[in-house]
Specification:
Strand order of the largest sheet: 1-11-8-7-5-6
Bound molecules: nicotinamide-adenine-dinucleotide
Helix content: 40-55%
CATH superfamily of the largest domain: NAD(P)-binding Rossmann-like Domain
Largest sheet: 6 strands, parallel
Strand content: 5-15%
Shape: globular
């Protein structure tokens, strides 16, 4: 079977074109949308990601301020900065980068991000709104998976989707979004007894575990669709996904590439969220 590459590049470009127009309209009315990136690490991968977010924002006409709190910032200091940005009229959108300093978890600080500016949907309030099916910002990576599947005309209603990974920022919110699309959803995780026995029953497998090569041909039913969320650094320094593409290709009907699949759509959706936050702020 030919395996279609579920590229995210065209979809990302279309989202970005719309975002750029909307950012220009806001700028024309006197204020460009403004994103604050809060960093509290000295991790090279995070620095690379922050730089790429800054470049995307710049290309789209979004002002981007980076606040570096240092890799030894306390949970209190991070919470204070997030709260200050929440009440700051000159900030429309807030993103907190990970990793956080040793001993500080996202759960320790994320409730300090006001939901109206929480463009990556990480605060407990945003996650609760999503679980309740109410309006709010949803985690961009999870949304990117659903948007990528829709863009490639992969039906979800009534289909069995198996999500591998149950983190608060990818797996769990993705399960909620898929339920909202009327999919039948199974979530697997590190304690799932026999991963392959579950994933082979899926019409769509989403790999979001952060483990190189975790999902291989034996995990995929012939004709199923596979979305690879993983972004892992291989020993040779290359970025690779969670899917062993070689063994899945020829078996799956579709497979999203890494890089060039979920990643560009995620960044595009984040930037769209920044513009939406700014539009909402100007209306209120
Ligand atoms: P995480 O470490 O917080 O969660 C990993 C999840 O995978 C956990 O729920 C764990 O139970 C599960 N898991 C681990 N090993 C497993 C195994 N052997 N079998 C089944 N389940 C297993 O990671 P995360 O933040 O959710 O990120 C997951 C991956 O997605 C990472 O590779 C990350 O880099 C990537 N990611 C990509 C984007 C993007 O835009 N493409 C954005 C965010 C995260």
């Amino acid at each position: 079977m030919d395996t279609v590459s579920l590229s995210g590049k065209e979809l990302a470009a279309a989202i970005n074109a719309d975002t750029k127009d909307r950012a220009a309209a806001l700028t024309g009315r006197g204020a460009a949308p403004r994103l604050a990136l809060i960093v509290a690490n000295d991790d090279p991968a995070s620095a690379w990601y922050v730089n790429s977010l800054r470049k995307s924002a710049e290309r789209l006409g979004i002002d981007c301020a980076t606040v570096d709190l240092g890799a030894d910032a306390s949970a209190d200091a991070i919470r204070q900065e997030l709260a200050a940005r929440g009440t700051d009229g000159a900030t429309d959108a807030i993103m907190l980068q990970t990793p956080l300093p040793s001993g500080v978890t996202l759960d320790d600080v994320s409730s300090a991000i006001v939901a109206t500016k929480d463009v990556d949907g990480v605060s407990p309030l945003s996650l609760g709104l999503l679980a309740a099916g109410l309006a709010g910002f949803v985690p961009a990576t999870s949304e990117a998976v659903v948007e990528l599947l829709k863009y490639h005309d992969i039906p979800l209603a009534g289909r069995h989707v198996v999500v591998v990974g149950r983190s608060n920022i990818v797996g769990k919110p993705l399960a909620q979004l898929l339920l909202a699309e009327d999919a039948t959803v199974t979530v697997c995780h590190s304690r799932t007894a026999d991963l392959a026995a579950v994933t082979v029953t899926a019409d769509v497998v989403v790999a979001a575990a952060g483990r190189i090569g975790l999902v291989s041909g034996k995990h995929v039913r012939g004709g199923a669709v596979v979305v690879d969320v993983g972004t892992n650094e291989a020993p040779d320094g290359k970025i690779v996904g969670d899917v062993d593409a070689e063994s899945v290709r020829g078996r799956a009907a579709g497979l999203s590439p890494v890089p060039g699949g979920v990643g560009p759509v995620t960044t595009a959706l984040l930037m769209r969220h920044v513009v939406v936050a700014a539009e909402n702020a100007r209306r209120s």
